[in-house]
Amino acid sequence: MISSTGQRNFLLKACVVLLFAMGMAAVFISWRWPMIGDEGIIHYVVFLMEKGRRPYVDIKDLNLPGAYLLDWLVIHGLGASAKGERLYDLGLCLLGCGACVWSVWPNRMRAMAALAAGLMFMLIHLQDGIMEAGQRDFAMAVLAMCAYAVLVHPRGSFQLRLVLFYVIVGLTAIIKPTLLSLVLVPLALPECRRFFREAPLRGTSVSMLGLGLFPLAALLWLFSLSALRAFYLCATTIGALHSQLPRRGLWFLLDHSLSPMKEVFLLWLVLLVVCQKKWTPQHRVLGLCVLCGLLSGILQGKGLSYHRYPFLCFLLLLLFDDFAAACERQGTKRFVGLAGLLVAVLVLAPTSLWRISRFEPHALFEEALTQQLVATGATQQSIQCLDTYSGCHNSLYRLQIPQSTGYLYDCYLTMPQSALRDRYREEFLDALVQSRPQTIVITDQPCFQQHQGYEWVADWNELADYLKREYRVTVDWSTNRTARLWNRPETPAYFRIYSRR
Question: Are strands 471-477 and 495-500 parallel, antiparallel or unpaired?
């Protein structure tokens, strides 16, 4: 007869095997995904930098230097193509699983639960859609998990682990600063409080040195490019405009953050009541990391799928650890723990895999625009995109064509009237007139507005007059075809190609 411990071990192993099999199936399915979305834009910015253009000076962008650093490493380490991007995205998935396991090693039973959490996180990430590959918040989530694993791992010098924790948090800060609240997390550990109490000056110096390493390196890099002032100007113009984009309400953000695993979370709340959970120091640290991840998504306020990754990675680790521990108990506690694991493994994970299997790896917009640019001979001329995310810059990246100006986004050109928007419009139009591109590409989806048409161009009198005077429409492309790049099929953006008269 199998003991309760043997039954628990068998259950955990079965869950891990099932999740691993579904994870490998998801990897196989996603291997052919094209490079589209934000990651393609950052690839394009790095491409422009390698053509001699300086970030923030010649390229008007709001991404921080850490995004370029990671992308440069991908291009030069894994390749500049979509395959290199897939290796990077799946490599982050693998690193996240490894960090989950390392955080509880050498306890093998907890390590199996942690691996299950890491695999579940990978499936949720892949089910969010093809455009979420390589997202900055996904990289930040994995790095934050690595920082947590280093901090709480019981072996090695605590001082060294603390320094490494802050170094990694500093790296996330130069990608996006939204996870900086993690700097307070070590204070939940008794050994950290003891270290700061016994050697306050040394503890503060060690922490500041680790935290400031990557931000200082980023500042020195910008200084070497004479781009510090330009970085400040981009932050106070594009950054300020970005902060004015529509924000979601708090309830939506909370609901959206939990939506991939709401059923499991509710079972966990039941488990908290039934078990009257006692929070160990490590669990307190993990709980604080969950709150920091949630705060990161709330601060960004847009409610985009990838904004919830820093929250989900820590929450999944906490939930799976508690469910696995509850399976050792008796009665209701064991039943709730078992229910949590089974709902995750037999319901949520297969649902994620089913969604992943339905995605269609077709970049319809990019393929059509690339073909039209080649057919019209525009690849030998200067080109300017008025587009944010539809895929114009991805197409130029495929063709290895530098854009005529450094302006990448139409979002801030189509916002409601304000002094900042008017200034951005004026600077963009001046750059456009000065560069005199032979070809201009305009989409009908300004800043996440599905098929709004080209009225926004007509409503901007200065741009409309300039186009009418200097250009003619040579291609007006549209399609009824749809592609399922995430959970629902969508018609790609339409575009017009303007050629100089």
Answer: antiparallel
- Domain extent, residue 354, equals 4-358
Percent of the chain with pLDDT over 90: 66
Domain shared by 310 and 369, yes or no: no
Asked if residues 337 and 324 have their Cβ atoms less than 8 Å apart, the reply is yes
Q: Are residues 386 and 348 in the same domain?
A: no
- pTM of the shown model: 0.94
Q: Which amino acid is at 334?
A: R
Closest CA to 350 of 112, 121, 29, 22: 22
Contact 40, 391 (CB under 8 A): yes
Question: How distant, in Å, are the alpha carbons of 143, 150, 154, 248, 425 from that of 161?
Answer: 14, 6, 10, 37, 48
Number of domains in the chain: 2
| pLDDT (tens digit per residue) in 200-226 | 888 888 889 999 999 999 999 999 999
Helix, strand, or coil (residue 156): coil
Handedness of CA 129, 134, 138, 142 (dihedral sign): positive
Identify the DSSP state of 53.
Answer: P
**223 and 137 fall within a common domain:** yes
Position 2 scores a pLDDT of 45
Local confidence band at 497 (pLDDT 50, 70, 90 cut-offs): very high
Contacts 24+ apart (CB under 8 A), 58-61: 58/406, 59/406, 59/408, 60/234, 60/238, 60/406, 60/407, 60/408, 60/409, 61/234, 61/238, 61/406, 61/408
pLDDT reading at 258 higher than 50:
yes
Q: What is the mean pLDDT of the chain?
A: 91
368 and 439 together in one domain = yes
Residue 41 and residue 371 in contact, taking contact as beta carbons nearer than 8 Å: no
Find all residues with CB under 8 Å of 104, minimum gap 6, and list them: 110, 111, 113, 114, 321
* Distance from the Cα of residue 87 to its chain's centroid: 16
* Three-state SS sequence of 387-443: CCCCCHHHHHHHHCCCECCCECCCHHHCCCCCHHHHHHHHHHHHHHHHHCCCEEEEE
Is-contact 210 164, C-beta < 8 A?
A: yes
